[in-house]
Amino acid sequence: MSAIKETNFKFPGQTNYYKGKVRDVYTIADKFLVMIVSDRISAFDVILPEPIPFKGQVLNQIAAKFLYATQDIVSNWVIDIPDPSVTIGKICEPFKVEMVIRGYLAGHAWREYSAGKRQVCSVSLPEGLKENDKLPEPIITPTTKAAVGHDEDISREEILEQGIVSEQDYTMLEQYTRQLYQRGTEIAAERGLILVDTKYEFGKAEGKIYLIDEIHTPDSSRYFYKEGYEELQSKGEPQRQLSKEFVRKWLIENGFQGKDGQQVPEMTPEIINSISERYIELYEHITGDKFIKAEASQVLGRVENNILESLNRLS
Question: Could you give the domains of the chain?
């Protein structure tokens, strides 16, 4: 199977190119962003050596579906989706914070809590909570967007004090974050899922706030299965997750956690195919739609042609 490992396109009017862990982003005429969601996969802050066919399509199409389903709450950056793995959108100046919202005590918040802390990003948490317990109400725990290294927790007070975001804008970011999480929670419930926590990124263009990047994908969000949640909690057992946790688990079982000197285990065709199939399962469960595989032969040619056609229409 063919997959998008990297792109090296040269589009007419191209003014910038940025390669992230998973996304390749082209700036066109300082007017449009072309975001190609590659099939690269990262875990423990390491890009694994082999791409996963259809992974980029899964992430791009989940994000597209949820961006469309939330545009009545806040405008988003999307202008066109010319290819299953590509989104073309409006250039926005990103806010230098990521808005993380948590409805359950899981992941980083649980690690902080279990270490004895009763505040995350200056938000107080009650005593007596267990891992994966539902919180009394969803909490917003922002992080800084680090250019290098890991993002860091930051409080509302610090954001305003340091002038990272104005109070007027930050109040709107909080409002949008809560509304988006509520909508995401409702859609997840219809699919038999719990939206545990997620993150949103926002930007500004012509004085207006836009929702940017991806939302409610298994890379940016944590989902539990609703069925069995209460029973597993009462027994103190781990929850069944719908996320890329299975990839991390496979790596850990094979002696890799991103530490110095560790080798990524061999990614055989069987392993690559099984990860691809799991991502397709994630797509179908989260969206309720049947996954239709995009043409995988000559994949880079397909992507380039679709982008060029779209740019011609838009210009």
Answer: 14-92+269-314 (3.30.200.20), 94-242 (3.30.470.20)
